[in-house]
Structure prediction request, 208 residues.
Amino acid sequence: MLLGPFIARPFASSTIRLINEANYSTPEEEGMSEDLVACWDVPMSDMVHRVEFEHGTTTGKRVLRLDGKEIVRKEWMFKLVGDEVFYIGRTKCIVRVEPSGGFSYEYSLIVDGKSLETFTEQLSKTCCTWLVQLPDNVYRVVLERDTLDIWANGEKLEATGEFVEDGTETHFSLGETPAYIKAVTSCNKKEGLIYSLIVHQQIVPLDN
Prediction:
Protein backbone atom coordinates (compact mmCIF):
# COMPACT_ATOMS: atom_id res chain seq x y z
CA MET A 1 0.00 0.00 0.00
CA LEU A 2 1.35 3.43 -0.94
CA LEU A 3 1.52 5.76 2.03
CA GLY A 4 1.13 9.50 1.77
CA PRO A 5 1.24 12.38 1.58
CA PHE A 6 4.51 12.76 -0.32
CA ILE A 7 6.52 15.82 -1.25
CA ALA A 8 9.81 16.43 -3.03
CA ARG A 9 12.63 17.71 -0.87
CA PRO A 10 16.09 18.53 -2.30
CA PHE A 11 19.22 17.01 -0.78
CA ALA A 12 21.47 18.19 -3.62
CA SER A 13 20.79 20.83 -6.23
CA SER A 14 20.55 18.31 -9.08
CA THR A 15 18.98 15.45 -7.11
CA ILE A 16 15.66 15.35 -5.30
CA ARG A 17 14.29 12.66 -3.00
CA LEU A 18 10.60 11.87 -2.59
CA ILE A 19 9.83 11.46 1.12
CA ASN A 20 6.88 10.98 3.45
CA GLU A 21 6.08 14.17 5.35
CA ALA A 22 3.31 14.82 7.87
CA ASN A 23 3.30 18.63 7.84
CA TYR A 24 3.43 20.28 4.45
CA SER A 25 1.46 22.45 2.04
CA THR A 26 -0.23 20.32 -0.59
CA PRO A 27 0.63 20.93 -4.25
CA GLU A 28 -3.01 21.92 -4.80
CA GLU A 29 -2.66 24.68 -2.19
CA GLU A 30 0.42 25.96 -4.01
CA GLY A 31 -1.21 25.69 -7.43
CA MET A 32 0.97 22.76 -8.54
CA SER A 33 0.20 19.24 -9.68
CA GLU A 34 0.28 16.72 -6.84
CA ASP A 35 2.64 14.62 -8.98
CA LEU A 36 5.25 17.38 -9.38
CA VAL A 37 8.35 15.96 -7.71
CA ALA A 38 11.31 17.93 -9.08
CA CYS A 39 12.24 21.32 -10.54
CA TRP A 40 15.65 22.38 -11.81
CA ASP A 41 17.04 25.63 -13.21
CA VAL A 42 19.57 24.87 -15.95
CA PRO A 43 21.87 27.74 -17.02
CA MET A 44 22.73 27.85 -20.71
CA SER A 45 24.32 30.50 -22.88
CA ASP A 46 20.95 31.70 -24.16
CA MET A 47 19.01 31.66 -20.88
CA VAL A 48 18.29 29.81 -17.64
CA HIS A 49 15.86 27.01 -18.51
CA ARG A 50 13.33 25.59 -16.05
CA VAL A 51 12.81 21.80 -16.05
CA GLU A 52 9.80 20.37 -14.20
CA PHE A 53 9.14 16.66 -13.72
CA GLU A 54 5.94 14.94 -12.61
CA HIS A 55 6.00 11.32 -11.50
CA GLY A 56 2.92 9.33 -10.54
CA THR A 57 4.22 6.70 -8.15
CA THR A 58 1.10 4.52 -8.51
CA THR A 59 0.61 4.63 -12.30
CA GLY A 60 4.17 5.46 -13.33
CA LYS A 61 2.89 8.56 -15.15
CA ARG A 62 5.64 10.90 -16.30
CA VAL A 63 5.23 14.48 -17.45
CA LEU A 64 8.22 16.63 -18.39
CA ARG A 65 8.00 20.37 -18.99
CA LEU A 66 10.69 22.67 -20.34
CA ASP A 67 10.18 26.39 -19.70
CA GLY A 68 6.51 25.72 -18.99
CA LYS A 69 5.93 23.76 -22.22
CA GLU A 70 5.04 20.08 -21.98
CA ILE A 71 7.50 18.01 -24.02
CA VAL A 72 6.92 14.48 -22.64
CA ARG A 73 3.76 12.79 -21.34
CA LYS A 74 3.45 9.09 -20.53
CA GLU A 75 0.23 8.23 -18.72
CA TRP A 76 1.01 4.67 -17.68
CA MET A 77 4.32 2.89 -17.10
CA PHE A 78 4.84 -0.42 -15.32
CA LYS A 79 8.46 0.47 -14.56
CA LEU A 80 8.64 3.29 -12.02
CA VAL A 81 12.41 3.83 -12.31
CA GLY A 82 14.65 4.58 -15.28
CA ASP A 83 15.72 7.48 -17.51
CA GLU A 84 13.73 10.09 -19.40
CA VAL A 85 15.76 11.65 -22.23
CA PHE A 86 15.12 15.10 -23.70
CA TYR A 87 17.06 17.95 -25.27
CA ILE A 88 17.60 21.61 -24.45
CA GLY A 89 18.55 22.90 -27.87
CA ARG A 90 21.26 20.46 -28.96
CA THR A 91 22.24 19.49 -25.42
CA LYS A 92 21.17 16.02 -24.31
CA CYS A 93 19.59 15.88 -20.86
CA ILE A 94 18.37 12.98 -18.74
CA VAL A 95 15.99 12.89 -15.79
CA ARG A 96 17.03 9.79 -13.84
CA VAL A 97 14.57 8.08 -11.48
CA GLU A 98 16.14 5.71 -8.96
CA PRO A 99 14.79 3.84 -5.93
CA SER A 100 15.70 5.25 -2.55
CA GLY A 101 14.30 2.58 -0.25
CA GLY A 102 10.70 1.88 0.70
CA PHE A 103 8.35 4.04 -1.34
CA SER A 104 10.92 6.79 -1.90
CA TYR A 105 12.63 7.78 -5.13
CA GLU A 106 15.58 9.95 -6.09
CA TYR A 107 15.41 12.26 -9.09
CA SER A 108 18.61 13.56 -10.67
CA LEU A 109 19.25 15.69 -13.74
CA ILE A 110 22.13 14.88 -16.09
CA VAL A 111 23.12 17.60 -18.57
CA ASP A 112 25.52 16.84 -21.43
CA GLY A 113 26.65 13.69 -19.61
CA LYS A 114 27.39 15.50 -16.35
CA SER A 115 25.55 16.20 -13.13
CA LEU A 116 23.87 19.59 -13.05
CA GLU A 117 26.44 20.86 -10.50
CA THR A 118 29.38 19.80 -12.67
CA PHE A 119 27.79 21.19 -15.83
CA THR A 120 27.14 24.54 -14.11
CA GLU A 121 30.71 24.70 -12.79
CA GLN A 122 32.17 24.00 -16.23
CA LEU A 123 29.85 26.54 -17.86
CA SER A 124 31.10 29.23 -15.49
CA LYS A 125 34.63 28.55 -16.78
CA THR A 126 33.68 28.88 -20.46
CA CYS A 127 31.18 31.74 -20.14
CA CYS A 128 31.01 35.09 -18.38
CA THR A 129 27.60 36.08 -17.05
CA TRP A 130 26.34 39.46 -15.84
CA LEU A 131 22.96 40.68 -14.58
CA VAL A 132 22.19 44.26 -15.61
CA GLN A 133 19.32 46.24 -14.09
CA LEU A 134 18.12 48.94 -16.48
CA PRO A 135 14.95 51.06 -16.37
CA ASP A 136 13.31 49.09 -19.19
CA ASN A 137 14.34 45.56 -18.19
CA VAL A 138 16.70 43.23 -16.34
CA TYR A 139 19.21 41.71 -18.74
CA ARG A 140 21.15 38.48 -18.32
CA VAL A 141 24.23 39.00 -20.50
CA VAL A 142 26.38 35.99 -21.39
CA LEU A 143 29.70 36.00 -23.23
CA GLU A 144 30.88 32.69 -24.67
CA ARG A 145 34.64 32.77 -24.28
CA ASP A 146 35.35 30.30 -27.10
CA THR A 147 33.14 31.87 -29.80
CA LEU A 148 32.92 35.43 -28.36
CA ASP A 149 29.17 35.32 -29.03
CA ILE A 150 27.13 37.58 -26.76
CA TRP A 151 23.62 36.72 -25.56
CA ALA A 152 21.06 38.78 -23.67
CA ASN A 153 17.84 37.27 -22.33
CA GLY A 154 17.93 34.43 -24.85
CA GLU A 155 18.81 36.49 -27.92
CA LYS A 156 22.15 36.51 -29.70
CA LEU A 157 23.24 40.13 -30.04
CA GLU A 158 24.74 41.96 -32.98
CA ALA A 159 28.10 43.30 -31.86
CA THR A 160 31.09 45.13 -33.31
CA GLY A 161 34.63 44.80 -32.03
CA GLU A 162 37.55 47.17 -32.08
CA PHE A 163 41.12 47.23 -30.84
CA VAL A 164 42.00 49.74 -28.15
CA GLU A 165 45.29 50.62 -26.51
CA ASP A 166 45.09 48.03 -23.72
CA GLY A 167 42.96 45.31 -25.34
CA THR A 168 39.69 45.01 -27.26
CA GLU A 169 36.18 46.37 -26.88
CA THR A 170 33.03 44.69 -28.22
CA HIS A 171 30.09 47.08 -28.50
CA PHE A 172 26.37 46.22 -28.50
CA SER A 173 23.06 47.51 -27.14
CA LEU A 174 20.80 46.37 -24.32
CA GLY A 175 17.49 47.74 -25.50
CA GLU A 176 18.27 51.41 -26.10
CA THR A 177 21.30 51.40 -23.79
CA PRO A 178 24.79 51.11 -25.30
CA ALA A 179 27.18 48.71 -23.60
CA TYR A 180 30.49 47.03 -24.31
CA ILE A 181 32.67 44.19 -23.09
CA LYS A 182 36.33 44.97 -22.64
CA ALA A 183 39.00 42.27 -22.81
CA VAL A 184 42.47 42.81 -21.36
CA THR A 185 45.30 40.41 -20.74
CA SER A 186 45.77 39.16 -17.20
CA CYS A 187 49.52 38.54 -17.68
CA ASN A 188 48.76 35.05 -16.37
CA LYS A 189 48.70 32.16 -18.86
CA LYS A 190 46.35 30.11 -16.69
CA GLU A 191 43.87 32.96 -16.22
CA GLY A 192 43.99 34.21 -19.81
CA LEU A 193 41.97 37.27 -20.76
CA ILE A 194 39.89 39.25 -18.28
CA TYR A 195 36.46 40.35 -19.51
CA SER A 196 34.53 43.30 -18.07
CA LEU A 197 31.05 44.54 -18.97
CA ILE A 198 30.71 48.32 -18.98
CA VAL A 199 27.32 50.05 -18.93
CA HIS A 200 26.98 53.81 -18.35
CA GLN A 201 30.78 53.88 -17.92
CA GLN A 202 30.49 51.59 -14.89
CA ILE A 203 31.82 48.04 -14.54
CA VAL A 204 29.06 45.50 -13.91
CA PRO A 205 30.12 42.75 -11.46
CA LEU A 206 30.19 39.18 -12.72
CA ASP A 207 27.27 36.97 -11.73
CA ASN A 208 29.34 33.75 -11.76
Remarks:
- The chain has one helix and 19 strands.
